[in-house]
Backbone:
């Protein structure tokens, strides 16, 4: 019986702790979002897919063949076109990425770079020599760098210049 009285007293004590002490917080949480209503915009109308049938007999261009921007000026090569008839030099058989500058020397005041190919063969070049696959011509040679002017052709057929360089590898 005594344990029943203890349980009863403990229940009364706990019930007394659950009074109105935090009622204001409960009310705030309950009513905090009452006046807030989110507004979600409706999704846009989705247009149904309309398939297109390509007809070879129509005047439409073939979608799988490259097109030129302006057929009147295309393929003329422009003023930057490299000399395609000159004899190629040995280093024009290699992409620039596979060549390394491994040394520098000067003979009679002419700066020369020592270039190693991917095959390990060494070559000497100076300003005016050709190098790389893109009609690259050596502009200058310093102790640490070989500057190259390359000629690249765009999709229309015109030629443009770009500069590249080989840095000395230590």
Residues:
């Amino acid at each position: 019986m005594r344990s029943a009285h203890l349980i009863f007293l403990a229940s009364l004590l706990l019930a007394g702790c659950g009074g109105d002490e935090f009622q204001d917080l409960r009310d705030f949480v309950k009513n905090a979002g009452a006046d807030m209503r989110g507004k979600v915009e409706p999704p846009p109308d989705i247009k149904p897919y309309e398939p297109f049938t390509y007809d070879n007999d129509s005047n439409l261009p073939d979608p799988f063949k490259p097109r030129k921007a302006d057929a009147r000026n295309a393929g003329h090569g422009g003023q930057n076109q490299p000399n395609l008839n000159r004899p190629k030099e040995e280093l024009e058989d290699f992409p620039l990425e596979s060549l390394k500058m491994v040394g520098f020397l000067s003979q009679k005041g002419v700066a020369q770079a020592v270039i190693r190919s991917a095959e390990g063969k060494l070559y000497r070049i100076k300003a005016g020599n050709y190098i790389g696959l893109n009609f690259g011509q050596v502009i200058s040679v310093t102790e640490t760098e070989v500057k190259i002017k390359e000629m690249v052709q765009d999709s229309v057929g015109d030629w443009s210049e770009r500069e590249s360089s080989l840095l000395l590898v230590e």
Q: What stands out?
A: Confidence is low (pLDDT under 50) at residues 71-75. The two ends are 96 Å apart (CA to CA). Residues 62 and 68 are 12 Å apart (CA to CA). Residues 90-167 form a domain with the SH3 type barrels. fold (CATH 2.30.30.830).
